[in-house]
Amino acid sequence: MLTGRESLLRVIGKRRRFLPNRQIVSASTSASTSASTSTSAPTSASLKDEIAERDALEKGSDCGGVVAESVNCPVCDALLPSLDSTIINSHLDYCLAKGRKRKLSQVTLLQLNFSRSKIKVNSISPADKQTEVIPTEPNRIVSSETINNSNELDSSKEFVDKSHSISLRNNQLIRCTENLVADATANDNFTSPLLLSGLKEECVDDCDMWKVFIPTSIVGRRYGSRGELNPESRILLSRDPENVKDRNAIKVHYVDCEDDNMLGYIPRELAKYLSPLMDKFHLNFEGSITSLPKDLRAAVPIQILCKNVELCDEIYSNNNQDFKSLWIDVLHVVERARTNPSGMTRYQHNMALLIQEVLKSNSHLFTNSEMSFLESYDSFPDDSKRLFARLYTRKGPWFRMSNISYPEIANYHQAIKELVEAGYLCSFPLPNELEENDLEEVLDILNIDELREALRVLKKKCNHGTRKQDLINLLISLSKDGHCSELQSFVLATTGSCVKVSPLAESLLWRAERLFFLNGEQNLSAFLLVDLGIVKYPAYKCIISEQIFSDRSELLSYEEAIEISQVMVESLDENNTELVLQCIDKSVSRISISSEESKSSTCGSMSAFLSHFSASWVYSKAVLLGVSFFEREKRYVDAINLLKQLLNTFTCDRRRGYWSLRLSVDLEHLGRVDDSLQVAEDGLLDPWVRAGTRIALQRRVLRLGKPPRRWKIPSYSNSVKRKIFEVHIQGRPLNCKTGMKSVFYGEDGERCGVEQLALQYYAGEGGGWKGVHTESGIWLTIFGILMWDILFADVPNVFRTKFQTAPLDLETDNFYEARKSLIEALLDKIVNGMAEEILITGWESHVGTACRGVNWEKHSLADLRAAVKCIGGSCLASICRHLAQDYRSWSSGMPDLLVWRLHDCYSGEAKLVEVKGPRDRLSEQQLAWLLFLMDCGFNVEVCKVTPAPPVET
To answer: How far apart are CA 822 and CA 257, in angstroms?
Structure first.
């Protein structure tokens, strides 16, 4: 593996199918022309497809739906579960007791028959096991005061007719909610995809929000302890504050079986606002199951009602704004679920949100035609939005129309037509118009049998194996030998109509993703991880005072650098040396052009960390990969020229240590020892050379600078040559092969690595130590928890999206300088013995929340507390200060083992151990850490594991 390849891949991120500037790296081809794609506006949305889909759901008796019944209250017309007599009776008692309603006698009530509306519920797709059954009527929110003039109810027939005409939109409160939801826009910081905010005050003054039936569902059924569902039983909500995934979690169980019959959970977005109502205001919620899904593990539709009506009236009368705001948020979430009931269509909203946020914050980076093109996505019908979002996230590039089928898309033929007309999709070209690249892409959607059939049509035998790529390569070579038209006709006849995401749409969406997430490792799937509750991002403020890209030309240069890097990596994978050399030459020339810009943007600026989003920074990574390529080919002169170019261009970069080290090594390869020594000595004078690379250069100077080259012994000689205490243990080896990880038999007879064998030794005859094999993990976890409030403090420009796990400047010197007073104040508390208290508070407040370096699952709170207690405040503060000042240089290479033993409840001792197998030696980074820890007063040692001699028989 070439050094720098993985780092460059992280910058590239998702490989682009279409590279508009691919030809610029080829000297033999002319500059690529920008493709012009039609951006005509999409056709206006029609409601016919939605109506047909709804009718199909209501009439689909052949899908095995489950029949559920509901009744309407004769007083307020609220929708009630017909199978739950307790809820019906309690609701009637409340309605009859209200002074504003006409009190009906028992005889009158008997004369008024309840209107039963049978609801036929069907799954969208019987083949999709995850598809939940969505009821029709229970998705309405019905207030218990919907009908204000109940005196007009003269007969049961008249009431029945009216009851069926009552819907969500007749409710004043929900009508206000809908208007605000439609008009809501993202604020300057960010709008979560799960929440819309801000009801107008006047919309809720005359409404009893807590008397609303809330339709929702039971999710997380796989976590439930009860599989079967009983629609006749009442359900109850209870809090689950100890849930590590979500501190707002709310469990659902049957009223009579609370302890061991949990059915699942309330959706996360609704629990976020119901949980404080239950905790702070002591509200209780009960309800019933409204319909049964075909798959018992799918989401179960329910409706719930607050049981503390009198308490709510009292709180509301006291004009409690928190109480009112929480109820408004609850109704917002329910309205969002009503308008978008299926979780399968949430990706549609996520893509729309991403486009909206990018255009709002970065409009200066798009042309008018590009903005119009992206804005047109929001005007598509739902089917078109969903289909494009689906296809964009798939591998592709070509898709057979006959294989496109999604349960949430009613008419995909119409959706494809609209997307093609708008320029979002491309259809197959006509025969004889397929270019070589298109032909290879189209052949990729054929299966092996179809590829073999193509060979038979061409009357050729396959003598190149049975791998799919071998067959494709053979067919492509045949197309160049005069079989092109025949092969194209066969392919088009076999695949039928095909579509792919257009180059323009792909390029603009790729740009939108890059601007939204600011890295190549995240994409639209990050929304999905949040929606599913798999990832929870920390809370912080996005304070933006300067743009990353000041103008469009900077962005285009950055994109071009990423494209050239992708071409270079692909060329390395294909062993295309000529194209690799062209990419290196192009990167070097681009760096030379932007040399002065790079120097001014990376030195002395408060926002120097934003230089990572410059074209020159991306090119520097491509050039470093070129250095590794030349070193592998033993072309040391070329490697030296590239390294000198990097050192001359980037004068304020923490990578200068590695560049100086490689330059010294390559000069020694050429026999230029004096030059190699001089480079190493100059590197040690560079303030940007730190940590392990500094130790490596010091050792090179001591080795190369012996008399007569150098007579004076450097001042750091004694420090580097310090002896580190060593412990030698023996074990029964399972393998002793060079290049393989050493495996031994442990004391229990099980196979284990050298680290586990060392832990067993320290736990036994080594002194009764308890410990963990952690390397850097436990230290980064402790650092992240202790520094949490500082990591996510209100610092301008370091947070730009709600999908960050750390500030953008964490791995730069700016992190410490911008927060120096906060960091030093916290370190003083740690020195004074408050580390354990801060650790416990941080764990309880943030457990489960994603943060750079923090591993909640691997390290328990008990182990972290013991480690902090035994390490001591002074030593722990030294490590935290070191990481805060230079996180990137010191976040790796820490000792393998942390072992400790407690003397009592308040004190103990700790030891840090680096474990080495029979053929291992300390790296410079590991040595740097051990020397630093010794300077801080830590007890450190190296444990060397060697094979035990064979037992003579």
So the answer is: 50
Phi-psi category of 132—alpha, beta or left, where left has phi over 0 and alpha has psi -120 to 50?
A: beta
DSSP symbols for 279-312: HHS---EEEEE----SSTTS-EEEEEEES-HHHH
List 301's β-bridge partners, or say none: 217
- The string of pLDDT tens digits covering residues 504-533 is 999 999 999 999 999 989 999 899 888 877
Write out the H or E segment, with its range, that includes residue 648. Answer: helix 636-649
Q: Do residues 81 and 135 touch, judged by C-beta distance below 8 A? A: no
Confidence band for 34, pLDDT divided at 50, 70 and 90 = very low
Number of Cβ within 10 Å of residue 20's Cβ equals 19
Tell me the DSSP string of 188-243.
Answer: SS---TT------GGGTTT--GGGB-EEEEEB-GGG-S-----TTSEEEEEE-TT-
The answer to whether residues 214 and 253 touch, using CB atoms and an 8 Å cutoff, is no
For 665, other C-beta atoms within 10 Å of its C-beta total: 18
Mean pLDDT of 405-414: 85
The pLDDT value given to residue 685:
94
Q: Which residues fall within 8 angstroms of residue 140, CB to CB, at 6 or more apart?
A: 79, 167, 168, 215, 338
Q: Which residues contact 522 (CB under 8 A, 6 or more apart)?
A: 13, 513, 803
Cα separation, 297 vs 227, whole angstroms = 8
Number of Cβ atoms within 10 Å of the Cβ of 226: 15
Strands (E), 459-553: 498-501
Structure tokens at 391: 């296809």
The pLDDT, as a whole number, for residue 41 is: 34
Chain centroid to Cα 918, Å, comes to 40
**Overall average pLDDT of the 200-219 stretch:** 63
**φ, ψ (nearest 5 deg) of residue 530:** -70, -45
To which residue do tokens 């104040």 refer? Answer: 825
Is the preceding peptide bond at 215 cis, omega within 30 degrees of 0?
A: no
Q: How confident is the model at residue 534, as a pLDDT?
A: 84
Q: State CA 697 to chain mean position distance.
A: 39
CA 336 from centre of chain: 23
Collect all residues with Cβ–Cβ distance below 8 Å to 681 and sequence separation of at least 6: 701, 705
